[in-house]
Amino acid sequence: MITEQIKFKSILWIFLFSIISFSSFSQGFLKAEGKQIVNEKGENVLLRGIGLGGWMLQEGYMLKINKDGQQYKIRERIEQLIGAEKTSAFYNAWLTNHTTKKDLDSLKRWGFNSVRLPMHYNLYTLSVDQEPVAGKNTWLEKGFALTDSLLAWCKANKMYLILDLHAAPGGQGNDTNIADRDASKPSLWDSEANKEKTIALWVKLAERYKNEPYIGAYDILNEPNYGFQNPEADKNGTKEKLNEPLKKLMVDITKAIRRVDQKHIIIIEGNGWGNNYNGIFPLWDKNMTLSYHKYWNYNDQASIAGMLKARAEQNVPIWLGETGENSNVWFTDAIALLEKNNIGWSWWPLKKIGFNNPMEIKSNPKYNHLVNYLNNGGEKPSTNDVYEGLMELAKDAKVENNIIHKDVIDAMIRQPLTKETKPFKENPIQNNTTVYAVDYDLGRNGKAYFDLDTADYHVATNKRGVGNKGRIYRNDGVDIAKDSLQEDRFYVNSIEKGEWLQYSLRVVKSGIYTLKLNVASDTNDGSVSVFVNDAEVEKSVAIPNTEGLKKFKVITLQNVSLKAGKQVIRFNAIDGGYNFSYFQLVKAK
Predict the structure, then answer these.
(1) Neighbouring residues of 262: CB distance < 8 A, sequence distance ≥ 6
(2) β-strand 215-219 against 160-167: which pairing, if any?
(3) 565 three-state secondary structure
(4) Shared-domain flag, residues 487 and 380
(5) Which pLDDT score is estimated for 484?
(6) What CATH number is attached to the domain comprising 490?
(7) Are 442 and 407 in contact (CB under 8 A)?
(8) Alpha carbon of 552 to those of 93, 161, 544, 583: distances in Å?
(9) How many C-beta neighbours within 10 Å does residue 384 have?
(10) What radius of gyration do the chain's Cα atoms show?
(11) What's the rounded Cα separation, in Å, for the pair 232 and 244?
(12) Gene Ontology terms, cellular component aspect (predicted)?
């Protein structure tokens, strides 16, 4: 009874926290008030958002293209293979399918309250060198129409939309993939015409959306990364001391916006991928928020000390405009840290070809052939195969065709607020039931499972961690591999001493069960102990040498007593070195 009361109080606390955090948003325009972002009622608003990376601007890694990964180069190479007309058909299908109202409906249902739109300027206006009349701006309806649709979907879900200029005219950094920069042409910083077009684009956007309260803010320039004082030694501006051109442009953009729109928050980002604010302070506008980006470092107070210092000294809100690309452990720890310090966040990205995001776009064999050719050369794929592979990829960009990673969503939304676990899948145990090893419980490391290598902290350690070495199926630290003999079957591998996995079961009938473990090993060194509701029922069971880590065999354990109702079974690796595919529980007659 006491346990149930504690559980009830925990659930009630989570529910009340959610009411406080979520009920207050979508109450008119957001604004910066001291160190907080508030709505028109003066209520604190904690933004829980996600970036729509890969929609308007494809970074090569999101498509598994690692060579010449700027979008314009990818498009040029595709066009060489299938021609301009079919290339345009693919990109139009991609823009139509990648982000739809169903995506926003899903985000709202899962618990997000905002989205960040990474905009590519070339959907809104021509590049400077393409303008028919120098110094004049040609406006393109495509980008504005896409933004209008996204805003309508956000409004329908009472979510805030943050506009982010991800690719500015000319490109704002030397990390060229981020802004789709052509380094053979003048950059944003080398061209007054590019700066003027950037300012004009923001004026156009502000004129269009100045009366839209569901536009949460204008994030005026994503991740500047440019060395102004010493471009040879500091090309990405991480050590820049003055940042004079960056500050001047941001001030000019702000002044231009304010001539038409006094209501919306303006978000600024420092140099060096958003974190170098040397020379930027003091601030020049009363309705401003600082954005930082955080990747691959520790999730402790020291990791955000610079953000907190700037917030206190400038009396301005902080927003973590971009973070992600790591494991669930890292996600949970980062979000818990940020929300403890009242810092809103926007994850990166919503979807890509890859597993560590809420949605995954499936690849296909014909597209894989294209990727291999673009990355490595070799056999040139046929025009028909390239086009069919691309159009299938565009079709699979739709949310209804995505793989939904509920473990990632759980790690971002539920786990920062609780240490409780929950089943990954319903496991009703009847006469003969199979539970796959990869379907261990949802929850934090040390609660639902325990793994020794859980995340990538290489910015802090100079050593890359990997979490799930297989980078497939789930995004925890547990290492997972695909079964090459069975479609859509996976197993846990690289099990180390001390690691463990937990499974919540729903036993239909009390009784004595036979427990069968499907394991593989190339040594006689492995062993496992079995616990039911924290009571050890099998101690140090030897894992036999099956003559290969992919040659699975069943070992049988007799007389495991299970009561009806919820039961929790845990497998502890006393000694590792084996792989684990599934376990079966067979009720004795």
Answers:
(1) 287
(2) parallel
(3) strand
(4) no
(5) 84
(6) 2.60.120.260
(7) yes
(8) 44, 50, 10, 12
(9) 11
(10) 26
(11) 18
(12) cell surface; extracellular region
User: What residues form DSSP beta bridges with 404?
Assistant: 359
Same domain for 457 and 326: no
Encoded amino acid at 391, one letter: M
Give yes or no: residues 365 and 455 share one domain: no
Give 565's strand partners.
507
Mean pLDDT of the 256-282 span: 98
> What is the DSSP code string of 412-429?
HHTGGG----B-SS--EE
Same-domain status, 152 and 270: yes
Q: Which domain holds residue 577?
A: 419-587
| Residue 305 backbone dihedrals phi, psi, to 5 degrees | -60, -40
Q: What backbone torsions phi and psi does residue 550 show, to the nearest 5 degrees?
A: -115, 5
373, 377, 378, 379: CA torsion to nearest 10: 40
Angle at 388 between CA 383 and CA 391, to 5 degrees: 125
Which two structure tokens, joined as six digits, stand for 374?
Answer: 């673009």
Residue 461 tokens read as: 């350690």
Tokens of 64: 């598994």
The string over 84-120, giving b where at least 16 C-beta atoms fall within 10 Å of a residue's C-beta and e elsewhere, is eebbebbeebbbebbbbeebbebbbebebbbbbbbbb
Average of per-residue pLDDT across 98-104: 98
Same domain assignment for residues 446 and 321: no
* Residue 49 contacts residue 347 (beta carbons within 8 Å): yes
Tokens encoding 108: 């709202």
> Can you tell me the distance from the alpha carbon of 416 to that of 167, in angstroms, rounded to the nearest whole number?
32
- For residue 63 the two structure tokens come to 């498509």
Chain length of the chain: 589
pLDDT tens readout for residues 176-207: 999 999 999 999 999 999 999 999 999 999 99
Using CB atoms within 10 A of its CB, is residue 200 exposed (0-12), middle (13-18) or buried (19+)?
A: middle
Tokens of 23: 């009920």
Instruction: Provide the pLDDT for residue 22.
Output: 42
